[in-house]
Input
Amino acid sequence: MKKFAVLIYPDFSLQEITCLTSVLSVWFGEKIDFIAAENKKYKSEEGLFVFPTKTTEETKITDYDCIILPGTINPLPALFDERLISFLNSGIDTNVVFAAISSAPLFLAKAGILQGKKFTAGFFMQMADVFPFIEKENFIHKGIVCDKNVITGIGMFFREFAETVLRRFDYSIGENFLSDKPEDFSEEELTFYWSKEEYDEFLEELRVYKNSV
Output
């Protein structure tokens, strides 16, 4: 089992990472920690509230195989939160894989993780003129870029981002990962049945639930 964590901060994008986190947890049974600078609720850019399971203070970055960083429409609070940046900086010269999408490569750049590495991002290019820690010469104008232990992506390519991370860790996800078309399936293929054991288990669960309400 691999160990994954998602870093969360104000206005983080759930949509950009749930393709990845859902497959990790539902398909492969991986437990994912949600790490933040403070033990409080954080509002995603979609308006949903999420509580972290751990804080940066009580966590070692090397406890994880992969740190996932969602994008945010409001990157400044995270960018200037030294607790988050220091946490990321502690991953320099480790084997931790950093997977950052949309604006999140900003945080990796400030933490020094992107130094000398090729990357992409979904931030506005003027930011590269404002922040000297962004190495413009290493920016690659592609949807997904991998360099050593860093995977970066642009937000619109969230499926490809998820696929790249999953293949990096050798998960068996088939050749057409989440890209099948509805018209390619027959009526029979779109009709679902439990096995007898699964059906019996559901009926027992239903019986217990009915008796408890």
